[in-house]
Amino acid sequence: MKTASPRLASRMAGIQPFHVMDVLARARALEAAGRDIVHMEIGEPDFTAPAGVVAAGVAALRAGETHYTPAAGLPALREAVAGHYRACYGLDVAPERILITPGASGALLLALAVLLDPGDQVLLCDPGYPCNRHFVRLLEGEAVALPVDATTHWQPTAEQIASIWGPRTRCLMLASPANPTGTLISETVLRRIETRVRERGGVLIVDEIYHGLVYEEAPPSALALPGPVFVINSFSKYFGMTGWRLGWLVAPPEYVPALERLAQNVFLAAPTPAQHAALAAFSEDARAEYERRREIFRERRDFLVPALEALGFGITVRPQGAFYVYADCSAFGSDSLAFCRRLLEAAGVAVTPGCDFGDHEAGRHVRFAYTTGLERLREGVRRLQTFLQERGEEG
Amino acid sequence: MKTASPRLASRMAGIQPFHVMDVLARARALEAAGRDIVHMEIGEPDFTAPAGVVAAGVAALRAGETHYTPAAGLPALREAVAGHYRACYGLDVAPERILITPGASGALLLALAVLLDPGDQVLLCDPGYPCNRHFVRLLEGEAVALPVDATTHWQPTAEQIASIWGPRTRCLMLASPANPTGTLISETVLRRIETRVRERGGVLIVDEIYHGLVYEEAPPSALALPGPVFVINSFSKYFGMTGWRLGWLVAPPEYVPALERLAQNVFLAAPTPAQHAALAAFSEDARAEYERRREIFRERRDFLVPALEALGFGITVRPQGAFYVYADCSAFGSDSLAFCRRLLEAAGVAVTPGCDFGDHEAGRHVRFAYTTGLERLREGVRRLQTFLQERGEEG
Known about the structure:
Two copies of one chain form a homodimer.
Chain A: H1 19-32, E1 38-39, H2 51-62, H3 75-89, E2 98-101, H4 103-115, E3 121-126, H5 130-138, E4 142-147, H6 158-164, E5 169-175, H7 187-199, E6 203-207, E7 230-234, E8 247-250, H8 256-266, H9 272-278, H10 284-311, E9 324-328, H11 336-347, E10 349-350, E11 352-353, E12 365-369, H12 374-394
Parallel strand pairs in A: 1-10, 3-4, 3-5, 5-6, 6-7
Antiparallel strand pairs in A: 2-8, 7-8, 9-12, 11-12
Helix pairs in contact in A: 1-11, 2-9, 4-8, 6-7, 10-12
């Protein structure tokens, strides 16, 4: 392979790889060399689609139902998602407002592309899901970090939004439950924020891809807010369909024609086999399976949080959803990336460094994902204990 | 649904819907009302994936092989595509240069996003595939039309490129076979063009998604050119996997790290079931099936071209590939969009107006797609004949 330095678009300087990819690559190399690694770095459920969903996918393949669907998705699937909002949230969402997309990634690309002009700002929580700011950069917008911390449940406040909002600010993006912290935004705060954003002529985008994976009272959808809002969701997490690449966007009705036109041009449509399979994801059987899995995730969280606390990690806010624990590791040093590397090499435990989620207090945090079985989590904690003890004895 | 006028990003003014979508919607409405419509507007093969490909997809679903793959695709699939270049073109393409993408759309998005800064120009043939210029607009680049016509086989010349190339020109994009014309670019012209582009520090992107569907001698891939080039391909057309959403990009090696980083952020990965299925698309059985289909497409072309000529359509250049005939309909008026509408209403034949492919001579052309069986094509031609006779008698 040649190694000439190519002339890249300027945007590429702002689109960084994830450090966790290096962690993952090193973990795979260690495994190839015979080491056993406990994976607590992976942001993907260990469960795949339930049997009924797989069966629906198989039936579609066998029937040759693999042509393009309409750009906004199979009408029956848009109806099914509307039914989901009715059944789970008591909300009446017109199917015409729902666009089926290639993953939540596709939904975010559509939303930002119809909203952002070059130089428009998008407010994003730091820490937060790193791809979000890269989508903004892709479209020549400017991502502005909203530093959040445990004192506000890792979510922004209405006052913070009001103080940071400027003439070029176009959007605020929130996630609830959030990645990497697993925390929810309270309904009261969300309502106050939405009012502030609306008063300023801005647009609120809410990422609800971890909805369903909440371990106490289920939160309302941002679609219940009085003002217009864009909501992004996905079949990946709660529905266990990561690699199928299927998500959806609910948009204010006046944006739908532009979104459809854009989807037609940049995707043609979301994957057809996945759309047919997803029709079965709202069945009673599938729902029961998803609820069983939610219990399993809850058990894992209920084991992991106190176990990490007992080892000296700081977890000021108990995560309420998703499958992450964002833990303060400053008791063990001020460079969480170095901590992750040492932990992997010495103890065979893979976790994600805080710097993958932004800059704010990143050096003192790591993210644990509980996307592996309880026995493996126990093994991970045992290894962590030994690792930290040996470290303590060295220091 | 509200009808407020939303504040859209400026790019949306440049991203237009396809007129054929109106044609299609009207055709569906007529069908719903009981009319029989001959569909010659659809740019999607009527064939779906062969049995072996479907079986591989089914096996992957059943085995739960539906997690995310690496961002650049399954290593085995990248190897298989490299094997395809070896077997069909005698070319040695390193698998590391091959990125598996969500359709050719995903490949084009990646290529343009790593290449284009705002205001950078991309030269695109007019007529050409309409989404291309919309991708350029999405990324804040400027699409510059290269008017081409039958005198140069609907392909640009090296002299034309040299004369139009300016200080902000970054890329030239070609398609061979081209949509809507089905014509190939000659190897000699392509080499001369590539030299011109390279001398100017530009980048050549070649769309080869209709490779395999060529009815005389198979053309070489642009990857055989001496200089670096981006090649876009797809499992949709020759491989019959449209709705699976799978394509690939072959890039110069020095661009691969940036492309992978971007893919990781904007797609995560291409659909996993499709990737597993596509592994079977290079088998001997599948290949034999694809070759049988190629013969069927050839028969359709060999019927349709002379039949349209006999009716008075102008087809100066015999299409060599894809499944399109771009026909001059100026004998029947100067507004091809109006012609398409009348043809649909009066005769129940759906075709695509030239204006969907650009401005250059668009009003005097329509595109016929032979993506339906020979019997239906014969019926379409019979209806056309009656329609044109009645029109003639009226006029």
